[in-house]
Amino acid sequence: MKMNLTIRWITIGLIWAGALIATYWNIDKIGLIMTEIEKEEVFRLDDSFWSYNSGNISKVLTKRDSLVLPIESIRLGLLSVENSLMALVSKHHFHEVQFESMPEQTGDVGIPINLYFEGPFKEILPWLSTLEQDFPYLPVRHVKITAIPFSKQSKYQFRLYFRYKLSNPEDTT
């Protein structure tokens, strides 16, 4: 009888040990499955985000690329900007134009530029609008407008910041 009872306790112990091992294994598998489900959900959400926002992302990247002007050298870039600004200034009937660049104050990606001219006050807003649209790589840092007494003319002083990216970084002059 004692032997029969011992065998029954051993059998019950083995059954409980098997049940506990199976429970531990089941919990471990559930954890792995939940981790995989979470990863798949993240990938699905990421994919839906990219597909939903791909147009906006491409617009942002295009806008970012337009904020700097790719140039081969600083001098050529400044000459190009000076010619473009002179054409824009003359298009809006301004005169007495002076252009000062400060390449000695060149930062990592930009050069300060001073632009002085005179002209009709009514033309400054269209000029600024054109500058903002056509030259996003030339943000305005400072503006000073001085009215000329008894005239519809004004004097303008602009401090611009020419942002560029060298396409050939070996030669920076």
Largest sheet: 5 strands, mixed
- In CATH, what is the class of the largest domain? Alpha Beta
What's the structural domain tally? 2
Strand content: 15-25%
CATH architecture verdict of the largest domain: 2-Layer Sandwich
Helices, by number, come to 3
Which series of helices and strands comes N to C? HEHEEHEE
Rg estimate, integer Å? 35 Å
Which word captures the global form?
rod-shaped
Structural class: alpha+beta
List the helices and strands and how they pair.
Elements: H1 2-66, E1 69-71, H2 74-91, E2 95-101, E3 110-120, H3 124-134, E4 140-147, E5 153-166
Parallel strand pairs: 1-5
Antiparallel strand pairs: 2-3, 3-5, 4-5
What would you say this structure looks like, in words?
This protein has helices at residues 2-66, 74-91, 124-134; strands at 69-71, 95-101, 110-120, 140-147, 153-166. It is an alpha+beta fold. The chain has 2 domains: 1-66; 69-166, 2-Layer Sandwich (Alpha-Beta Plaits), CATH 3.30.70.60. Strands 1, 2, 3, 4 and 5 form a 5-stranded mixed sheet that branches.
Briefly say what this structure is.
This protein is of the alpha+beta class. It has helices at residues 2-66, 74-91, 124-134, and strands at 69-71, 95-101, 110-120, 140-147, 153-166.
Question: What are the salient characteristics of this protein?
Answer:
173 residues; alpha+beta; Alpha-Beta Plaits; 2 domains; 5-stranded mixed beta sheet; 3 helices
